[in-house]
Amino acid sequence: MRVSENWKDYELIDCSDGERLERWGDIILIRPDPQIIWSSGKKNTLWKNAHARYHRSNKGGGSWEMYKRVPESWKIKYKNLTFNVKPMGFKHTGVFPEQAVNWDFVSDKIKNENRMLNILNLFGYTGCATLACMDAGAKVCHVDASKGMVNWAKENAVSSQIADKPVRWLVDDCVKFIQREIRRGNKYDGIIMDPPSYGRGPGGEIWKIEEKLFSLLELCVQVLSDNPAFLILNSYTTGLSPAVMEYLLNIQLCNRFKGRVSSDEIGLKVTETGLCLPCGSTVIWER
Fold this sequence. Notes:
CATH superfamily of the largest domain: Vaccinia Virus protein VP39
CATH class of the largest domain: Alpha Beta
CATH topology of the largest domain: Rossmann fold
Order of helices and strands: EEEEEEEEHEHEHEHEEEHEHEE
Number of domains: 2
Oligomer: single chain
Strand order of the largest sheet: 1-16-17-15-12-9-10-11
Radius of gyration: 19 Å
Strand content: 25-35%
């Protein structure tokens, strides 16, 4: 497992009985996580002294129960980057801390290329990976179907003091955007993809990752430059194992560009137990 271990402003304190106990800066949150199927006692006193807890609803979604005053938004840092954290209506905060291991990867790749890379970040969400690429010296095209998420990503760029670096912020359906990029002949030296398991585009288009991923990768190959550096695919869908995604990238990329593919789970270390909580999977093709 590839573990994100370089955080100072985030900590996975404990996890038990379907919940995570987390520190986001100075704010302690309890959030549900269905894969936490064990009970380890919840001995840490912060379980009873958290700022807020998210409760799922049987009808879908859920809500936050506030025990102490929680700001609408506050800032946390990861190395040179600053992110605006906001408790959202569907348990999320705008940052997936386990992805930091991938931010470090793309940052190192970009810095070691000794050329200006043009990077495409699809399903870019609040822009954490985009900011890592910008900070490392790449040009970035950030695409997400949600206007609110793209605006949030712009806020993060301002907070990180890199908003003046070359970036395009686009609110668009990712598949339709790539199809237009193919027609326009635009090319990218690296692609980052973090597609949802299920979602809808701005026009109500339904997205199911198991049905759409192969064709999406076929399109992505067509917008890679002649000398691409990497392609990263993330998944939180349990049905898509790292090995399945590795097979996908091998047949889509290696025949054309050679290089190598690696895959693994990504995760976070739990302070209370010293064990690592798996939080998703990533497959990487690199030249």
